[in-house]
Amino acid sequence: QRIVMHRLFTVWNVCRHRMSEDIASQLQELQKQLRFQCVAASLQRIVGHEDRIELTLSTGEVQYFDMLINCTGPDLTLIRTTNPLLQDLLRHGMIEPDEVGLGIALARDGSATGNAAGKVFPIGALTTGTYFECLAVPELRDQAAQIVSAYNHSS
Q: What global pTM score does this model have?
């Protein structure tokens, strides 16, 4: 399961959550006008200047931009997270990484396992390792309903 998730996760998300044709045609028009550039590379370094952003890419190329839009989403590997809240919750044992390594381990009620079971309820991308399909509106709606149900049963 872990190997399949790590190898196919990105491919699946690209296919499942691709942009609408209308947005794609708008981006193509911006590309023709040289106002938009899509670059397939990893960022190695970002330096903010007064009027531009300097990016050093994994290709070694340095480019300058007026704006940067990061569409990669969160790093779901909790042991590598730089998010201060998640780091603190991990450090205090309030959450645990799931067995696949793509988010937070969950109990049956949807709450995080760990010292705060029944009190911390992740939703969306951080539940990928358990639910896999968790980023589109219907799945988010189902997760929110599950959290409300768990809350109502605990009160």
A: 0.58
